[in-house]
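Narrative summary of target 7.
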Amino acid sequence: MNVLARIISYVFHPLLMGTYLFALMALLLPAALYPINASSQFLFVGVFFMMSFALPVIMLSMMKAFGSIRSLTMENRQERIFPFFMILALYATFTFMFTYQDKIVPEHNLFKFMLIIDALVLVSLLITFFYKVSVHAIGIAGLAGILLPLNQQSDNELLLWVTIGVVVLAGVVMSARLQLNAHTPRQVLVGALVGLLIGFFGVILQF
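Modeled conformation, tokenized:
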């Protein structure tokens, strides 16, 4: 069971949630990624993956190599603070680069979604100053929270089934974290509530 739990934790790593979100939108709601053209959306997803996942993983690997962190899982709360701060700085830089270079303005959907992702990372950092919250729970619940209100704005029935699937996956991911004893039930619950609220109200308040 632990092997399966580790695989689930890797496949649904928090840093991958933004990539999954934009990939789902490119497939189901291409208009939601305005102003990125439909023909360029998967290219954008690939670039976003490299900048939001591959680059932070390289950075964390370097930190481990230099002894700044003991492992990539960062089991100690205090050990997470500086890496989380660096990841937040990377995400904020990515948001600025995408918006500045591609002339994306705050009224555009893409900027709004990236702002929600940045908020999830920021709140994860702030909570980590005081509490070891489950960032896996924040990530997957944040994805579910974003998708839930989007169903009201779309007539794509497949989106509803995808949303239900993500909600089920959220339970699977959180169960995997508990199976690995990476977090207590309270830490997972707090993460789930934080992610769900930020994702849900981030969409409600901006769209």
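Residues 2-206 form one domain.
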